[in-house]
What we know:
Structural class: alpha+beta
CATH architecture of the largest domain: Orthogonal Bundle
Oligomer: single chain
Domain HD/PDEase: 29-140
Strand order of the largest sheet: 2-1-8
Protein name: HD/PDEase domain-containing protein
InterPro entries: HD/PDEase_dom, MESH1
Helix content: 40-55%
GO molecular function: guanosine-3',5'-bis(diphosphate) 3'-diphosphatase activity
Radius of gyration: 22 Å
Pfam families: HD_4 (PF13328)
Number of strands: 8
Number of helices: 10
Distance between the termini: 47 Å
Amino acid sequence: xxxxxxxxxxxxxxxxxxxxxxxxxxxxxxxxxxTHPLSVGLILARAxxxxxxxxxxxxxxTIEDSTEGHKVTQDALSEAFGADIAQLVASVTETRKDLxxxxxxxxxxxxxxxxxxxxxxxxxxxxxxxxxxxxxxxxKDGDEVFARFNAPKDKILGHYLQAIDAIxxxxxxxxxxxxxxxxxxxxxxxVAPPLPELYxxxxxxxxxxxxxxxxxxxxxxxxxxxxxxxCTFYFCKEHGTGFNLGLATVSAAGVECxxxxxxxxxxxxxxxxxxxxxxxxxxxxxSVGR
Length: 290
């Protein structure tokens, strides 16, 4: 990211709003809030966004998080940075802070359907910055991290997943589509209750142990080797086979069979564990070992 006069001005303006006027911190943390919009700006720069979009990323919370006495309006941003940047910031701003959490997030999801590509890119960067930080904090503190939010864990994660799905459907070729799709896979692991037999501990992962999931009916013969610590596999009905893949290898388009096209995703943690081949018997863990 080039440190142009526009970027310098955006950083000074955002710092004034978040730090000098209000001393804002990240939710539940003793970290200056300005680190978040700066992270969004860096993500946008890495995605080769235009200079105005990067500036809007740095400014994206200045309307929403400003308070009476230091209120930032779209008109004020327009005067300082131009109408296009002000409109981009306004497009990702929740203006109805008086509404219940569920209604605000419902409106936010509806607005995604009207976003320009610049707004989609900015929203993607915002989600990446927020949810990646959430994942890192969750690794250290577990579900306690959700106490800092105004909604329970399932709603927080559900909203992220719905927003990511809406963005990728609107613009599958976005420079950040792969990043947010991978992020969605990480968030899904926090949503679905893990199967202990399939979630290998750190020592097991080091020696590449494998769990084999198979159909309880020996005549069916369906089975999947789990070489990656997640409860997802992809299934090709025509071949009758399943593949457990590392989340990093799954693209925004999903997984495709070379002969038969897109495979179906099967999540053991959220489905009835009915064998996808015979569709009659349940799946079971055969063994964990080499």
